[in-house]
Amino acid sequence: MKIGITESSYHLYPKENRYHHIKSDGYDYVDFSMSNTEQEPYTLEGDAFEAFFAQERAMADEAGVTIWQVHGPWRWPPQDGTEEDRAERMEKMKTSIRGTALLGCKNWIVHPIMPFGINELGTEDAQKTWDLNVVFMRELLAYAKEYDIIICFENMPMPNFSLGSVEAIMRFVREMDDDHFRVCLDTGHVNVFPEQSLYDAVLMIGDKLQTLHVHDNSGRSDEHKLPWFGTADWGGFGRALCEIGFSGVFSYETGPSRSLPLDLYGDMLRFMVKSVQYILDETEASS
User: CA torsion, points 235, 238, 243, 249, in degrees to nearest 10?
Assistant: First the structure.
């Protein structure tokens, strides 16, 4: 299995050798974050914008690391309620897609827009949420295809949000009906739905599974813990990945506690690589 990690887990290391640390710790792939639109590269224009990504790509290439996926814009709390809000998000998301292409990356991860908040399940606003997302994502999809970028639609950790569950995400992906619109499965987000197992979620997505955000939690909220530090069923997750023949990247969206001394922090990052191997070894041993 290919193993990756969010590059934000390496922000304790100097930027100039961050990718070398990633590689030496056992990760060959990276999830690059473009979530925060208040900072670079969003504040850059023209040549400076392109230079930002050229430098990032060169550092990754020199270290032998592949930027496998990019996380698009995200802010909390949601601000998608007006046409002006959505237009601002669209502009930032298109900027992120251009950046993804400049990184030589194919996979771009995005959350649903939330124009009526996260508690509209079962109300008349749920259909409006669906309709606005269809319009929004169709425009994004057309733009992404110009750059041959695959949009990876992510499930959310909000049981009362109408586009939170894996079932809802899959209905939406089928509605979009395009090979450039697929799924990012977030394991921690699945785990806050008590009726949904990771095993069933992976099988439900099947060949639409493009990218992963791997982390754990207590089942109550989105805590981004390491595997086995929460309640997720990692054995079932590994079995399901094998059953669908997943050939993508086991990509962590978590990291050690920033309060650890740097040496111990590095030890934990390497422990996370061993955790992936253990999940897969246990799966193979039980099959």
Answer: 170
pLDDT, tens digit, 9 for 90 and up, residues 168-207: 999 999 999 999 999 999 999 999 999 999 999 999 999 9
Nearest C-alpha neighbor of 62 from the set 98, 17, 29: 17
Closest CA to 181 of 121, 215, 138, 230: 138
Helix, strand, coil in percent for the chain, rounding step 5:
50, 15, 35
Residues 182, 108: Cα–Cα separation, whole Å: 10
Q: Is the pTM of this model over 0.90?
A: yes
Query: Cβ(152)–Cβ(184) under 8 Å?
Result: yes
If DSSP codes are grouped into helix, strand and coil, which group holds residue 184? Answer: strand
* 30, 143, 159 from 185: Cα distances, Å: 16, 23, 15
